[in-house]
C-alpha cells in the first residue's frame, strides 16, 4: 500500500503490522555505517541501543518519558564530537551510544528539536529515524498533535536526506492508519 507523500529526500515508511518494531519492519537493507536515531516511547533506551550492538557505527536514542537514568551511565563528551541535547532533555553517553532523555511524553517539541539536531549533525550520513509507536504519542497528546509532529519529522528528515520508519503501534484507533498514511511514502 502506498501513502500519498512525495519522495523528495529520504524515504518514509509506516509499519502497521501488530507487534512489529520499527527496525524489524524496515524494508530497506541499510549499511552498518548508516546512523540510527531511535525515538523510544515504549522501549527503554538501553534495550533499543543494545539491539544494534556493534553493528552500527552511530546509534542514539531519544528516550521519551524516562525520568531517571542508570547510575552506571555517565554523561561525557568526547573531543571533536557533538551530541545534541534539546531544551529540557538530558544527554547521557552509554556504552552502546548516546541517550537523550525527554522526561515528558507529551513534549513532542523537545523530541522534534533533539532529532533535528542529530539530523543536522549527521546530514551527510543519510541516517534513519525510527519511531517505536505513534500510538504512544497519540496517548500522550492527541491525534492532531501527533499528526503535526510526524508531518514536521518527515519533512525535516527529507530535507536531510534521512529516512523515517515509524510503527503505528498497539491499541490505536481504527482510523489512525488512514490519518497517518498520507505522510508516508510506503505503508507496510
CATH C-level label: Alpha Beta
Structural class: alpha/beta
Kindly state the percentage of residues in helix.
25-40%
- Looking at the overall shape, the CATH architecture is 3-Layer(aba) Sandwich
Would you give the CATH topology? Rossmann fold
| Helical run tally | 6
- Main sheet attributes: strand count, strand direction, barrel closure: 8 strands, mixed
| Overall pLDDT level | 78
Short recap of the structure:
The protein has 6 helices and 8 strands. By secondary structure, the chain is an alpha/beta fold.
Structure, explained:
The protein has a single domain (12-23, 31-187), classed as Rossmann fold, CATH 3.40.50. Helix content is 28%, strand content 19%. It contains six helices and eight strands, in the order E-H-E-H-E-E-E-H-E-H-H-E-H-E. It has helices at residues 22-25, 45-50, 108-121, 134-140, 143-159, 176-180, and strands at residues 12-15, 36-40, 59-64, 90-93, 98-102, 128-131, 163-167, 186-187. It has an eight-stranded mixed β-sheet with strand order 4-5-3-2-6-7-1-8. Helix 3 packs parallel to helix 5 and helix 4 packs across helix 5 (143-159).
Amino acid at each position: 500500500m502506498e501513502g500519498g507523500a512525495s519522495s523528495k529526500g529520504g524515504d518514509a515508511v509506516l509499519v502497521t503490522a501488530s507487534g512489529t518494531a520499527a527496525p524489524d519492519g524496515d524494508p530497506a537493507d541499510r549499511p552498518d555505517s548508516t546512523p540510527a536515531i531511535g525515538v523510544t516511547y515504549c522501549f527503554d533506551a538501553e534495550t533499543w541501543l543494545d539491539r544494534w550492538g556493534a553493528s552500527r557505527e552511530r546509534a542514539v536514542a531519544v528516550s521519551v518519558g524516562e525520568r531517571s537514568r542508570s547510575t552506571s551511565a555517565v554523561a561525557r563528551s568526547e573531543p571533536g564530537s557533538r551530541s545534541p541535547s534539546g531544551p529540557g532533555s538530558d544527554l547521557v553517553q552509554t556504552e552502546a551510544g548516546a541517550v537523550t532523555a525527554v522526561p515528558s511524553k507529551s513534549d513532542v517539541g523537545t523530541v522534534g528539536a533533539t532529532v533535528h539536531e542529530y539530523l543536522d549533525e549527521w546530514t551527510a550520513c543519510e541516517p534513519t529515524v525510527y519511531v517505536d509507536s505513534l500510538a504512544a504519542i497519540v496517548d500522550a497528546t492527541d491525534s492532531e498533535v501527533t499528526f503535526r509532529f510526524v508531518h514536521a519529522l518527515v519533512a525535516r528528515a527529507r530535507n536531510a536526506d534521512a529516512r523515517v520508519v515509524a510503527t503505528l503501534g498497539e491499541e490505536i484507533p481504527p482510523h489512525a492508519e488512514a490519518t497517518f498514511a498520507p505522510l508516508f511514502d510506503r505503508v507496510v
